[in-house]
Amino acid sequence: MDSATALISKLQTLASRLSNEEDRDARKECLQISKALTAQLEEPENVAVDMIFSPMIAVSARIAVDLNLFALIAKEEPVTSAKLAELSGAEELLIIRILRPLSAIHFVEEVAPKTWKATRITHAMAIEGIAAGHRMISRFVVISMQSAPAYLKKHGYACPTDPRDGLMQYAFNSKLSAFEQVTSDPALLKDFNTFMGSTMGARRYWVDWYPVQDRIVDGASPDKALLVDVGAGKSHDLLAFQEKFPNAGRLVLEDLAAVTETLDSLDPAIEKVPYDFYTEQPVIGARVYFYHHILHDWSDACCLKILEKVVAAMTPGYSKLLLHEMLVLDQAAPLFQAELDMTMMAFNGGMERTKDQWTALLEKAGLKVVQFWDPVDEGGDGIVEAMKA
User: Fold this and answer.
1) pLDDT tens digits along 7-33
2) Of these residues, 292, 293, 296, 324, which one is catalytic?
């Protein structure tokens, strides 16, 4: 690792490029250097001890979300803790105490004693999709992961793979799958759907960087479906595709009937098909079968059952499978990738995968990887493009 002096020198060299907001590479490199510099400057024992108490930050954020403090601070800034107590109904002393750790990590700024104003992160935390994510993850995933030490010890320290006998079932003493648990709780389901509909953050849609015209539209048969979005949810990806490539071909949205029945305002140009991806694929010979954040929810054994159905529907040499998923680095994976992988373990016995893991999984399913398309945004997902072997 470079010395602190060398890292500072690199930052100084890059500083002039930061004025160009379009220079994403400079921003990404500066972020990496700043994290490395922090690791160089901090005392290792302090870092180790800070980790012990780090859950207090996430808990404080969750309470602040419940009290709507981020939105209040963003709207009222600067605002005193007394005013926040009046607006939220919480005790002023409690507000002061939960905002302290959040101020220390720049989620809010304390501009005077007991007086707060918004930072850029405050405004992000006020977004309902992000607030929903904090509620859902803390209520469901964090509780599941807290059971991991006991569960893994009991199961010989092996990764959970059974969607009905994993961390969530152990934590909640349940045999429901994670998805059944979510759908059985209206408030949790609402937060889940809201969060899933906003996980793009500042990242671009795949249609903005994947060569759609060359890889999908060109050579497509007008008699067959162009794009089948499996497990499409509220159709965000299909709508982005349609906006960028209007009238390119037939678009099909597939999801469980409980989801498709709620899509009353969906553009009539998008065909709705109630579908469970563990059953026979009803749309045969499509140009593309698109799965966005589907397979990472499942273990390899479950993925093979899912892939079996789509492989049977694909036309050799024509149909493509596009998996819009995280491509975990083989070495020194970013923290976000590692966190999402552990989240998938807790949620449904799933996992984020490296390129080698994707290749091995698809080969077992009778598919071959044509190309990996790396993400263009920090923390973004790539695309695995595959065809029938």
Assistant:
1) 999 999 888 898 887 788 888 889 889
2) 296
DSSP-assigned letters across all residues of 300-348? HHHHHHHHHHHHHHPPTTT-EEEEEE-EE-SSS--HHHHHHHHHHHHHH
Instruction: Give the domain range for residue 21.
Output: 4-41
Short-list 295, 353, 338, 310, CA closest to 163: 295
Give the rounded distance of the alpha carbon of 80 from its chain centre.
Answer: 34
Cα–Cα distance, 382 to 324 (Å, whole number) = 6
Q: Which amino acid is at 345?
A: M
| pLDDT at residue 364, rounded to an integer | 98
Instruction: Report how many domains make up the chain.
Output: 4
Cα separation of 34 and 11, whole Å? 8
Backbone φ, ψ for residue 352 (5° rounding): -85, 150
- Euclidean distance between the first and the last CA atom of the chain, given in angstroms as a whole number: 43
Same domain, 233 and 374: yes
Does residue 130 lie within any of the structural domains? no
What's the average pLDDT block by block, 10 residues per block, for the chain (389 residues)? 85 87 84 89 94 97 98 94 98 98 98 97 96 96 97 98 96 94 92 80 84 97 97 91 95 93 87 97 98 97 98 98 97 93 96 98 98 88 97
Please indicate, yes or no, if residue 341 is contained in any of the structural domains. yes
Q: Are 347 and 163 in contact (CB under 8 A)?
A: no
Q: Which DSSP symbol is given to 126?
A: T
Annotation says 296 is catalytic:
yes
List the CATH number of the domain containing 93.
Answer: 1.10.10.10
Tell me whether residue 238 is in a domain: yes
Pairing state of beta strands 79-80 and 270-274?
Answer: unpaired
The pLDDT, as a whole number, for residue 204 is: 84
173 and 101 in one domain? no
Q: How far apart are CA 59 and CA 6, in angstroms?
A: 37
